[in-house]
Amino acid sequence: MKEIVQAVALLVGFMSTVMVFASLYHPYWKESTNYGSSITTATLYENLWMSCATDTNTNNCWDFQTLLALPGYIQASRALMIASIVMGFFGIIATLVGMQCSKVGGENYVLKGRFAGMGGIFFLLQGLCTMIAVSWYAFNITQEFFDPLYPGTKYEIGEGLYIGWCSATLALCGGCCLLCSCRFESTEEKMPYPYQPPTQVTAYSGPVMSQGPPSQYGRNAYV
């Protein structure tokens, strides 16, 4: 049962890491809305790396020229998403080493259990980093949208954020499954012991002389 849980956790963690890549480079993190505007000339959308404008015939995109001129939440979201990818990579490697059904790492199941636990921690950190990044970005979108005094273009939540939320949920589930399948306190669980052949004990098989109580009759008393 534990092997099945670890295999499922590895699959879920791998899917979450792939979805982090998909979310990071998805162009639609936020998309301009038509709410409150009767005339729409173009649709604007952005992600962490570029801003685009599209209409019926053309699609123009330009990368952000400088990092320091960006808002703080975009810089933080970039750093958190990159850290999430790194955590997911380490989580996959540690889980592959720590799985009991794999031959990597030898037959030391205690050490393999610790590696599996480390993989679970990496997946949890990946999920937290992704969740904080996309939630922080979405918070700023909603804050500007519901602010009646905001003078700029108002946006709605894009598809990239939903992919990020799904990735964070999968990573958190995979990390919890790995931690539940490990027992750090059981240092004797499935520990391989060297084979010791049974020792041969040589028993003495000679005649046994039994000494009874001395007879009260002498030898000459028998006829």
3D structure, described in words:
It is a single chain. The protein has about 220 residues and is α+β, with helices and mostly antiparallel strands. The protein is built from four helices and five strands; from the N terminus they run αββββααβα. The protein has helices at about 1-25, 70-100, 110-145, 160-180, and strands at about 30, 45, 50-55, 60-65, 155. Strands 4-3-2-1-5 form a five-stranded antiparallel sheet. Strand 3 and strand 4 (about 60-65) form a beta hairpin. The longest helix is centred in the middle third of the chain and has 37 residues, at about 110-145. The radius of gyration is 35 Å and the shape is elongated.
The total count of strands amounts to 5
- The helical percent reads 40-55%
C-alpha end-to-end distance: 84 Å
Low-confidence stretches: 184-191
Per-chain topology:
Blueprint: H1 2-24, E1 30-32, E2 43-46, E3 50-54, E4 59-63, H2 72-98, H3 109-145, E5 155-157, H4 159-180
Antiparallel strand pairs: 1-2, 1-5, 2-3, 3-4
Helix pairs in contact: 1-2, 1-3, 1-4, 2-3, 3-4
Summarize this entry quickly.
This protein has 223 residues and is of the alpha+beta class. 49% of the residues lie in helices and 9% in strands.
Highlighted features:
5-stranded antiparallel β-sheet; single chain; 223 residues; alpha+beta
